[in-house]
Stress-response A/B barrel domain-containing protein (Flammeovirga pacifica), 97 residues
Amino acid sequence: MINHTVLFKFKEEATAAQINAMVDALQALDNKIDEIKEIQVKENFSERAKGFTIMLYSKFESKEALEAYQVHPAHVSVVTEHVKPIAEDIMAIDIEY
């Protein structure tokens, strides 16, 4: 099993509406990409977040399934339309267990 976790830090000019649209679009991938076994996109409440305010947590059966997700047109579209325009920094962590 693969755990894919992504932390998002946003540009100062990013609006709440843009961030909410990104969260909704990422969460909606659950119904569009078969390789996703679980996905949660939530607000980070930790005071140690260093500016990373949204976290995506997802599970995949294998590294190949994660790779298929990353190039899937629905994922690429969300990244292009919702993430890149407002993200200042992104940190991704992938682990196998």
User: Anything to note?
Assistant: The domain at 2-96 is CATH 3.30.70.100 (Alpha-Beta Plaits). The chain has one domain: 2-96. The mean pLDDT is 97. The chain has three helices and four strands.
